[in-house]
Amino acid sequence: MSHIELDRERCEGHGTCEQIAPNIYQLDDEGLVSILVDQPLPDELVGAAEAGARVCPLAALRVVDGS
Ligand code: SF4
């Protein structure tokens, strides 16, 4: 089972992750990323979650596999 690790301290709210995977990542009222989906991630969302995490310029997102 995969899940998203988010380090909000790193996020600067550029929104690149949201552009790539708007069904998973969204900027909240504070202008920082929030995760829209339940965890652990359903298998069909892992690819999109990883794609969004990869484009984060600040490495605030990581998709990890494991229980
Ligand atoms: S791409 Fe990274 S820095 Fe930008 S909003 Fe997403 S998590 Fe935050």
Describe the protein's architecture and organization:
The chain has 67 residues and is α+β, with helices and mostly antiparallel strands. The chain has one domain (2-65): Alpha-Beta Plaits, CATH 3.30.70. The chain is built from two helices and four strands; from the N terminus they run βαββαβ. The strands form two sheets. It has a two-stranded antiparallel sheet with strand order 1-4. The chain has a two-stranded antiparallel ribbon with strand order 2-3. Strand 2 (25-27) and strand 3 (33-35) form a beta hairpin. The mean pLDDT is 96. Bound molecules: iron/sulfur cluster. Iron/sulfur cluster is lined by residues 11-17, 25, 33, 56, 58, 60-61.
Kindly report the average pLDDT value. 96
CATH architecture classification name: 2-Layer Sandwich
The proportion of residues forming helix, as a percent range, comes to 25-40%
Helical stretch tally: 2
The unreliable regions are none
CATH class equals Alpha Beta
| Domain count | 1
The unique ligands bound to this protein are: iron/sulfur cluster
SSE order: EHEEHE
Percent strand: 15-25%
Profile the largest sheet.
2 strands, antiparallel
- CA(first)-CA(last) distance: 6 Å
Rg over CA atoms, rounded to whole Å, is: 11 Å
Class by SSE composition: alpha+beta
Q: Can you tell me the CATH topology?
A: Alpha-Beta Plaits
